Amino acid sequence: MKKKLSLVLAIMLTLVLALPTVALSAEPRVDESEVDQARRAGQVFVNRLAGIDPNFLEWKGAHLVAPQLCYNLEGQVNAYMFAIEKDNRIVGRIVVGSSSYGYTVFEAGEATPFPFPTADKVKSSLGKYLGIKVDEESIGEPRHLVYLGFGEFYAIYEIKRQMIGVNLVSGRAVPASELKSYIGSPQEFKAAKKQFRESKPEPLGSSGYKILEEMHVWRDIESGKTYCGPCTGVSIGDYYRDRTQFQPNYPNLYGDNECMYDRLYDLMECDLFGGAALPVFWEEGIMKMTQECGYNNFGYVNDDDVTPNDFWVAVSDINMGWPLGWLMPSQLHWRGIKGYWYDTDDHRICCTDSKTGEDNAWYYWPSNIGAYTACIKD
């Protein structure tokens, strides 16, 4: 009898905030009491995660240092990014919302806080993505750091009388007028929390947690095999081929991950889009690869009207041992979803990320999403 095999990919499409410019008002004074409250909220999260997730045992006894103010597109502080330190060593990063967001932890992970780019990197990004040529000496310091949610960090520069955002993770340069927020206003965020509290299906309890520990990030920096679509496909394929937690596994999938990456890169038509894997090509690439390896129980179903409550779809799939794929269209960046954690107010997903090299990065489930879903199963 065939076993079900499912992948769910969620593409966050709702554009919650689209302002024409980033505010140029003077940077507000730091409210030290708010920073301290954000630090305490983040410390509670770090302690809790270290107690339940075996991947974060190293965080036991760690503490939060070096707060970095993050701003929204209106020039107001909306979050704080801290380094997580243990024994004089940085072991991760955490982003905590401001008081307007109830000091909610937006994300946390194994990577260190993302530094501002050097003037040389800014110059390169401006030329590569916007065709703007400038001297390094004219770049100057960034005005501030903008946080838009889900790994979206931008250093804001004024270049030739134009405000430009440079993504701290990808290095992509974008006119500030094109930046959009994916966490919603504080009012929308609070309304979504209330919606989550009322949406939990029966017979699920008031809290839940599960991690597919055998799923890991895959990339090969030396060979340049780092494109996120096929990398995420390899992470998922590797899990299904070699996992022991669930049976049967799929031993005939490509046994060499380099080979699997190359085949997925071709089948996902990545060359057509500068290395990016667009949604339909990502799905079809996974399906075609499994067919080549002798598995014909793959298909996909699309849904372009997924609500925040579809977090529970992810919960159901992870409970069955089925990892997920997730694309943020603003980043054109794929991640693999390998776990979840929820309680009364918090709903989070745990992801792999080939861009940062993280096996485990936790993200707050979006407050407002329009999404696209595909299930691959028999």
Write the layout of secondary structure elements.
Layout: E1 9-11, H1 32-52, E2 63-71, E3 77-86, E4 89-97, E5 105-109, H2 119-130, E6 144-149, E7 152-159, E8 162-167, E9 173-175, H3 186-199, E10 208-211, H4 228-242, H5 257-267, H6 279-292, E11 302-306, H7 311-319, E12 324-328, E13 333-342, E14 347-353, E15 358-364, E16 371-374
Parallel strand pairs: 1-12
Antiparallel strand pairs: 2-3, 3-4, 4-5, 5-15, 6-7, 7-8, 8-9, 10-13, 11-16, 12-13, 13-14, 14-15
Helix pairs in contact: 4-5, 5-6
How would you describe this structure to a colleague?
- The chain has 7 helices and 16 strands.
- Strands 1, 2, 3, 4, 5, 10, 12, 13, 14 and 15 form a 10-stranded mixed sheet that branches.
- A hairpin with a 4-residue loop joins strand 14 (347-353) and strand 15.
- Helix 5 crosses helix 6 (279-292).
- The protein is an alpha+beta fold and 378 residues long.
- Helices cover 25% and strands 27% of the residues.
Question: What structural class do helix, strand and pairing data support?
Answer: alpha+beta
Major sheet details: 10 strands, mixed
Shape: globular
Q: Spans of 5+ residues with little confidence (pLDDT < 50)?
A: 1-26, 368-375
Helix content: 25-40%
Mean pLDDT, nearest integer?
84
Second-tier CATH architecture of the largest domain: Alpha-Beta Complex
CA-to-CA gap between the ends?
A: 10 Å
How large is the count of helical segments?
Answer: 7
- Could you give the count of β-strands? 16
Name of the CATH class of the largest domain:
Alpha Beta
Question: Total domains, how many?
Answer: 3
* The CATH topology of the largest domain: Cathepsin B, Chain A
Radius of gyration: 21 Å
What percent of residues are in strands?
Answer: 25-35%
Order of helices and strands: EHEEEEHEEEEHEHHHEHEEEEE
